[in-house]
Design a protein that fits this description.
The complex is a heterodimer of chains A (116) and B (117). In chain A, the strands form two sheets. In chain A, strands 2, 4, 5, 6, 9, 10 and 11 form a seven-stranded mixed β-sheet that branches. In chain A, β5 and β6 form a beta hairpin. Chain A has no helices and eleven strands. Chain B is built from no helices and twelve strands. In chain B, the strands form three sheets. In chain B, strands 2, 5, 6, 10, 11 and 12 form a six-stranded mixed β-sheet that branches. The termini of chain B are far apart. In chain B, 38% of the residues are buried. The chains are: A mainly beta (116), B mainly beta (117). At the A-B interface, β5, β9 and β10 of A face β5, β6 and β11 of B.
Chain lengths: 116, 117
């Protein structure tokens, strides 16, 4: 079965550089979530999109932005990178809407971002 | 504030023995509860969920979880542990959301399960 695809798997950037992470949800999934997981930490919710509109906002820094495109893929744009941004960034997808609160999230394998 | 607590950072179990990974939650209303497992350098994999109905929920790989409303707990269990069950386990809650979109998951800190031969 098709899964959530994230690219790249690994990314190394220097401080103050920018990075773009991509996420391709499972076909027919219309909701995308972004999570950040620091070393030894639980995943922290950043932002989500439902039908190409932002649906929820978590602890996403102002330096980050994201969007969902017409084909439902999503991109997380990160600017002015800081050492503390080094983490595993997960994208998850699900079917959205009112009747889907019990739908589990399907996670990609993540992008490991290292800021030096 | 909505929260999830996993009181144990690590659980050690001998192969073949039963295992329990504890989770308690604090959320207003009736929550939706989930367990996910994470293997090294991998994304989280869904194990099971509780929405309503029977308090004992069965999930993937022989895992089950028991919902206890009075104790606000949702402990993960397995009758006989395997070495391959060794991984990081996250309990998560999705608070009821009566808006137009579904809410995000709130995760516990995770419990590392180590199953020894």
């Amino acid at each position: 079965a098709a899964g959530v695809i994230q690219s790249p798997r690994h990314l190394i950037k220097e401080k103050r550089e920018t990075a773009t992470l991509k996420c391709y949800p499972i076909p027919r999934h219309d909701t995308v979530y972004w999570y950040q997981q620091g070393p030894g930490q639980d995943p922290q919710f950043l932002i989500s999109f439902y039908e190409k509109m932002q649906s929820d906002k978590g602890s996403i820094p102002d330096r980050f932005s994201a969007q969902q495109f017409s084909d439902y893929h999503s991109e997380l744009n990160m600017s002015s990178l800081e050492l503390g941004d080094s983490a595993l960034y997960f994208c998850a997808s699900s079917v959205g809407g009112r009747s889907s609160y019990n739908s589990p999230l399907h996670f990609g394998n993540g992008t490991r971002l290292t800021v030096t | 504030a909505q929260s999830v607590a996993q009181p144990e950072d690590q659980v050690n179990v001998a192969e073949g023995n039963p295992l329990t990974v504890k989770c308690t939650y604090s959320v207003s209303g009736n929550p939706y509860l989930f367990w996910y497992v994470q293997y090294p350098n991998r994304g989280l994999q869904f194990l099971l969920k509780y929405i309503t109905g029977d308090n004992l929920v069965k999930g993937s790989y022989g895992f089950e979880a028991e919902f206890n409303k009075s104790q606000t707990s949702f402990h993960l269990k397995k009758p006989s542990a395997l070495v391959s069950d060794s991984a990081l386990y996250f309990c998560a809650v999705r608070p009821p959301n009566y808006g137009g979109s579904q809410g995000n998951l709130i995760f516990g800190k995770g419990t590392k399960l180590s199953v020894k031969p």
